[in-house]
Amino acid sequence: MNGNKSTGVVATTTPKQHKAKTKQLKSSTKKFKILSEFARGRKLHRFIAEPIGDHCLHSTVSTIESEHSLEFSRERITVPTRFGTTNVTLYWFDADNQAKAQQLVSFLSGL
Fold first, then answer.
1. What span, in angstroms and rounded, lies between the C-alpha atoms of 41 and 92?
2. Pick from 84, 86, 65: which is nearest to 76 by CA?
3. Distance of alpha carbon 70 from alpha carbon 94, whole angstroms
4. Which of 22, 26, 62, 84 has its CA 20 to 30 A from that of 38?
5. What angle, 0 to 180 degrees and rounded to 10, lies between the N-to-C axes of helices 95-109 and 15-23?
6. What is the DSSP string of 11-74?
7. Residue 25's pLDDT is what?
8. Which stretch of DSSP H or E encloses residue 89?
9. Do 35 and 25 form a contact (C-beta atoms < 8 A)?
10. DSSP state at residue 51
């Protein structure tokens, strides 16, 4: 036996725990800036996100999804580079997740 016991219980986040996590998202952070861009309806990939201040967009997207119960749409696309082309993932919110993100951004902005 490896010492890990499965209880069969799935961990869930209570509304109070989610609110506590949400409060950790400060308006001056990279994560908040990227979330705000997506809430406005922007589609971003790693090269578009870099001038905004995110050098690791896939990680930020993953964190936003896991901490705030939001789901991104994704599409693999080819973009030009100075060396030719490369494949990247384009991220955006569908209408439902965009509305949730707008509510979260408004709440965190104190609006």
1. 7
2. 86
3. 10
4. 84
5. 60
6. P---HHHHHHHHHT--TTSHHHHHHHHHHTT--B-HHHHGGGT-S-HHHHHHHHHHHH---EEE
7. 60
8. strand 84-93
9. yes
10. G
Q: Which residues contact 85 (CB under 8 A, 6 or more apart)?
A: 78, 79
| Tokens standing for residue 46 | 């790693």
Average pLDDT for runs of 10 along the chain of length 111? 46 47 64 96 97 95 95 98 96 98 91 59
Name residue, tokens 């965190």: 108
- Which sequence spans correspond to the domains of the chain? 28-109
Give the Cα separation of 43 and 79 in Å (integer). 14
- Amino acid identity for residue 52 in this structure: I
The candidate with the shortest Cα–Cα distance to 31, out of 58, 54, 6, is 54
- Report, at the CATH architecture level, how domain 28-109 is classified: Orthogonal Bundle (1.10)
Q: Is the pTM of this model over 0.85?
A: no
Helix (H, G, I), strand (E, B) or coil at 73: strand
Angle between helices 15-23 and 57-68 (to 10 degrees): 140
